[in-house]
Amino acid sequence: MIFSQEASLGHLAIHHIGNKAQDERFVLSEEPLELHDELLSKLLLQYFLVPYEKVPEVYRFFHGNDDLNLNEVYHFATAIFDDQATFQENSRQLAKHLYEVSNHPKIKAGELYIAYFSNVQIEGEQYDAIGIFKSETKETYLKVYPENDGFGVSYEEQAININKLDKGCLIFNTDKEEGYKVAVIDKTNGSEQAVYWKDEFLKLRVRNDNYNQTANVMGVYKNFVTEKLDDEFEMSKADKIDLLNRSMKYFKEKDSFDIKEFGEEVIGNEQGIATFLNYKKEYENEFETPIPDSFDINDAAVKKQAKVYKSVLKLDKNFHIYIHGNKDLIEKGFDDGKAMNYYKVFFKEEA
Q: Which domain holds residue 7?
């Protein structure tokens, strides 16, 4: 989790980045912006940092040649962390790099902000951080003001909504040798132009820590139950929901994940366990994301995955049955007279 209540804004540079594919130009500022207005500083902190309070994933910089210094953003960020006196020049280099990768015709022009923060908290620790933000969406605002004995109204075009950050990344000054800790926001719609921010400009990959290990194995298991099991086993939706509920119970009650223990306690079938292990291996090979056989379970990842684990049987448009516990208390049958399926549910009390 990222918190910014104690954060302060030290340096800020603003540049304009056009679309290279459309022969638009870039404009680089010579000096950092001097901020003397306390309210403006607070508004900028809100615009830049508040959106990250809901960003759980943490990434790292990488380069295909395994030399981090060949990653442009990593290189320029490191130079700033090493010597803040180089902030403005390296902000200009970051702007030039972004311009060079802005090659899709649908990428919007906009302002690029490079900021240096102190005391930004991530995962319970405070660090200096470099922020890189791009504003692409402009809006028109009405302004009402006192005039004579009443009020006047005017408007301002091409203004920025501080509650809508289009693109951004926060680079935390920690774990330098592993590629820093990096948090990302990208609100672009449309897959073709969206990849340039995270994949071409920043060059990031997901950090393989216990948060992502927990999220990955839970996601793989969910897809295994909902998509793969039907290929080899005959299972009702109630049985699938039971398997998902048992896995959620495992992750909520255990402190650590063990693949052998998980298979025995949750799947409980040798053929099913073998099928799951093969499915997990296929995922690791396809996405080049290894999932270790044991790791500490991350509670934040469990809470996030719980939101997409479904425990509801939807029956036509008439009924929903929520299954939270013993699946033996629900039976499926077929009524020949009505030519319809039915479920029989056993219970002791009505709530």
A: 2-135+166-206
